[in-house]
């Protein structure tokens, strides 16, 4: 099966999950105006080509729109939910600089992300047993070093219910 | 008659559990029988102490229940308000946001300065180039004019030696008087001998 596109690595989950720009919850729309030709727009083009998939993967609820060859110079515009618009001029910047800039002004900080991670973890207790969808393990027989599942390895006679009273009677 | 109110069959509060009216043979419009002429319907007997006790118990039960309901309602409202408060951004966050926006504006201003600088440089560059081109053109023009002038002067010089109808006779006489010998001899070593015999 052939790989699709010029840089198929952009479609891999590993690449996408490496994006570190997670927008704050107030950012709703991101608009990128850039040009398809010109030296000054090169950084913006690379940003659109390489970094926007990562951003969209991490922010599935943010609408991203691209406008080509509409303005002489490239820029980004963010629309927040309180009506505020944030303009970012990206002429003559590399795509790395652009991502850093965006992360600084509108991205969630590392502490915030960690806090959210911890909150999410608190909801589910890892020591509980239950369906695979909600818990890690279903039965004690899954754990190394415990009695294996009787479905695969029959229990010794002493532990089985039908022999216990017989043993007791004998004794 | 399968009378069922609305969407939930079997759920009719006044008639549950599923009591069917026992009218039997007669409809409501038929007159009652003659044997029931002097019938007086008496309400069921009530024991006053029992009634008091039962009423008191019901009162307390309902009191407790409504209190519990109010309690739970208040708790839910409280939780919702807390959620709302936590969701909206706090003062520090707003402050932080304003600071970041200010930084972004500065960055934009710096970018604008850089862009203006670049434009200025490019304009200067263009002007210089234009100037150079104009200079070159001017120089070429000058050189051309010089060339033309030189040619004109040369022609003027040569004009002195032209043969006109006036000095035609004189020139012919001159040529006839001075015969020019264009013959020459050359040997294998490349030596030219111009002095030959004119025939």
Q: What does this protein structure show overall?
A:
Chain A: Keywords: Mitochondrion, Ribonucleoprotein, Ribosomal protein. Chain A: GO terms for molecular function: structural constituent of ribosome. Chain A: It is found in: Mitochondrion. Chain A: Pfam families: L51_S25_CI-B8 (PF05047). Chain A has helices at residues 13-17, 42-58, 95-106, 110-123, 164-170; strands at 27-34, 63-68, 75-80, 85-89. Chain A has 171 residues and is α+β, with helices and mostly antiparallel strands. Chain A has two domains: 8-109, 3-Layer(aba) Sandwich (Glutaredoxin); 125-170, no CATH class. The model of chain A has no long low-confidence stretch (mean pLDDT 92). Chain B is rod-shaped, with a radius of gyration of 66 Å. At the A-B interface, β4 and α3 of A face α2 of B.
How many angstroms does the end-to-end distance of chain A come to? 69 Å
Count interface residues per chain for the largest interface: A-B, 13 and 12 residues
The major sheet of chain B is characterized as: 2 strands, antiparallel
Question: Number of helical segments of chain A?
Answer: 5
Assign an overall shape of chain A: elongated
Tell me, rounded to a whole number, the average pLDDT of chain B. 89
DSSP strand count of chain B: 2
Sheet bearing the most strands of chain A, described?
A: 4 strands, mixed
Beta-strand percentage of chain A? 5-15%
Apparent shape of chain B: rod-shaped
Counting DSSP H or I runs of 4 or more residues, the number of helices of chain B is 3
Structural class of chain B: mainly alpha
Count of distinct strands of chain A: 4
CATH superfamily of the largest domain in chain A: Glutaredoxin
- The helix fraction of chain B, in percent, is 55-70%
What share of the residues of chain B does DSSP label as strand, in percent? under 5%
- CATH fold-level assignment of the largest domain in chain A: Glutaredoxin
Low-confidence runs of chain A:
none
């Amino acid at each position: 099966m052939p790989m699709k596109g010029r840089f198929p690595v952009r479609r891999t989950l590993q690449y996408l999950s490496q994006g570190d720009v997670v927008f704050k919850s107030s950012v709703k729309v991101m608009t990128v105006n850039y040009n398809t030709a010109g030296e000054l727009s090169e950084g913006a083009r690379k940003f659109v080509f390489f970094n926007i998939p990562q951003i969209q993967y991490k922010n599935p609820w943010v609408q991203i729109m691209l406008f080509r060859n509409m303005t002489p110079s490239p820029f980004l515009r963010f629309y927040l939910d309180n009506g505020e618009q944030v303009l970012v001029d990206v002429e003559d910047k590399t795509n790395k600089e652009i991502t850093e800039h965006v992360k600084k002004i509108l991205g969630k900080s590392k502490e915030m992300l960690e806090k959210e991670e911890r909150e999410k973890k608190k909801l589910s207790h890892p020591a509980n047993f239950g369906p695979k969808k909600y818990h890690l393990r279903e039965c004690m027989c899954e754990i190394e070093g415990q009695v294996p599942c009787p479905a695969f390895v029959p229990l010794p006679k002493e532990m089985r219910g039908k022999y216990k009273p017989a043993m007791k009677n004998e004794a | 008659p399968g009378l069922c109110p609305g969407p939930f069959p079997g759920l009719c509060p006044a008639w549950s559990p599923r009591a069917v009216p026992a009218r039997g043979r007669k409809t409501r419009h038929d007159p009652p029988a003659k044997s029931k002429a002097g019938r007086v319907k008496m309400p069921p007997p009530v024991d006053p102490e029992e009634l008091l006790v039962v009423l008191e118990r019901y009162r307390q039960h309902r009191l407790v229940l409504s209190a519990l309901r109010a309690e739970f309602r208040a708790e839910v409202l409280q939780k919702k308000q807390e959620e709302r408060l936590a969701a909206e951004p706090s003062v520090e966050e707003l402050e932080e946001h304003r600071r970041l926006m200010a930084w972004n504006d500065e960055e934009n201003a710096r970018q604008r300065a850089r862009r203006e600088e670049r434009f200025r440089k490019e304009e200067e560059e263009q002007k210089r180039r234009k100037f150079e081109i104009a200079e070159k053109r001017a120089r070429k023009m000058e050189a051309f004019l010089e060339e033309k002038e030189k040619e004109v002067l040369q022609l003027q010089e040569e004009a002195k030696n032209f043969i006109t109808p006036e000095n035609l006779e004189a020139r012919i006489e001159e040529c006839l008087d001075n015969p020019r010998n264009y013959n020459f001899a050359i040997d294998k070593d490349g030596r030219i001998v111009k002095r030959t015999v004119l025939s």
